[in-house]
Amino acid sequence: MRSGDTVRDGQGNAYQVGQLLGHGLWGKCFVARREVTDQLFVLKVPLTPDDIRGEGGAPEAFFVACRDALMEEARLYEQGQVPFLPRLEARFTGPDGQPAMLLPRLAESLERRILDGLGVGPLVDALLAVAKLVRQLAGAGVAGAAVHGGLRTTNILYSDSGELFLTDVATPAARRNVAAFANQAPLGPCWLPPEVVGVGGGGDGTWSAGVDTWALAMILWRGIVGPEAPIAWPSRGLDKASVGAVKDKLIQRMKAEDSNPRFHGRLAERVGVLLSRALSLEVAPSPPYRFSRLDEFVQRLEEVAALIRPQVTSVGKVLHDRPAARPFFATDEAVSFSVTVGVTAGVEGREEIGVGIAVFDLARDSRVKDLDLGYTVDKHPSGRYRFAFRINGLGPGPYRARVAFAIRDSGQAPSTAESEFEIRAAPGWVPPAEAPQAAQPLAFAREQTGVTTPRLEPPSAADTPVAVVNPPAADAPLPAPASLSAAALTPTSTLPPPARSKVWEARQPPPPDIGLRPLRGHVSPPPIDPEPTPIHRPRPLLPASAALPPTAEPEKARPATPAAIASPLPPTPAAMGGPGALDEPAFEAPRSWTYEPIPRGKQSSASAEDPPSQVDAGAEDDGEPSPIGAFFTSVKNDPFVLVMSSLGGLILILLVLFLALRS
Questions:
Q1: Residue 168, exposed/middle/buried by CB under 10 A (0-12, 13-18, 19+)?
Q2: What would the pLDDT profile of 476-492 be if each residue is shown by its tens digit?
């Protein structure tokens, strides 16, 4: 049978034979199109003498074995004992007298996926799925075989929905004649181990699980090195150089795949050991040589898959370290609980497991921050880890604890567990002092506002009081400008402080020192801040009867010798430490206080603008009132005494009138 022929099945359906798909051990496959529906199938026929080229060809017994193998496989597919074997569409005899069978054409093969750049991780997952199907096939006892015997990349197929199928199961006829098939047919890559095909005359034809483990390891090797292997096919096993090349290639490929970089080195070592053992020429003892059971190979392959993407497999229930009779915690003890965590094979230490914990205060509906937390980790012989947590410093109330676990650098969502617990106050428990909050600005404190108040312009020279200074001697040198100070200035008069307003107070910087000598008895004012200071504090509250002294008008400028110097403004209350200073609150006078002008002594007639150069502490005050006058003044000025005195006088008058009427 060749391309272009037309064949018919037992139902009379015509099929046109298309292109050749490939050769196997004992058969070949074509694409066949049903003429009525244009549906595509796979037409499989045994090998013929035209397919075996060489001197002398092949004996007739070889072609008989090929026909027997085809008929056994057709009966196996027709029975449909397992779902992952292809469904038989039809079987019939071709025009050349050779048996043939029609199978559904599946979407693609594992070989095609490898050629398209299948990653190592998906390849390992596919091999694990194939190994599980092979175990089902052996358990079902299909055709009396304990193994598949025909695993290769072209016999592992996928449907349009991604369903996995296995073809070319080694039937008894194929196993009996495998050596003849290997000697006559072009095998290509060595998917079968040497002891089965009898390479070099050393094979005994024994079929065991090592046949499938060899084939699966060969597929893994092919997927790691890529479509074009940089080294020869390991038909005689892997030496140290070949194992090193496979490790380097694996690490290089894993950097471009979805994998955990923390485990790349460990993954390469595990894959090297797996391939060295599975492709070993020695079959016994096992270990350290060939895998004698498929389950053992699958276990090692699962460890490889776990190292590619290690993850947390399970998180147990949160167990509180409390007796059943006392299910709550007290404030004088630590909150303790434990969680058991399971991880995939290959995670060998607790430092590879990332841990997170969050505690929520259910009463306040908020997360508790700055926990006083600690935990310990113990590894169980089963491989699971037990995390024990201890939390201190929580106050009374209901809480919820949430713990999360993930493999470090995995990039996967963590696995979590939650539990609620209650804390009650222990006898004598005192709530801790809360952290001091930021002080709120008082009414008289400095406030920062976005309103910019214009600065007051300094007074002009014509309206500024001047100071009269004593001129230096004619032959006395003037001091250096750096030695000048504000103390050299002498005001001509002492004025009461002007009334203050709620605006920025304009202040002039101290005038330059020009080397003038101060007058006798002059007291220098305190230093003035060159920057304007906001007047933000209220002045003392005074009774309505008290009136502030009027602000004296500044004296007109008088000619000064040798120069007229502006006097600095009087100091602010803040500079004097009195009411309005930033270090003390404003002073408020009691309502019962009265304010009277302070009587002056002998100097009362003196001008307010020309104070004496020194104070006369021994001068008598002729204006001081007599004791009787002081008494009437205090009664007059004190409302309480005045009212009580008036009331007493009224009672006395009424008593006198009453006595007068009686008499």
A1: buried
A2: 444 444 443 444 434 44
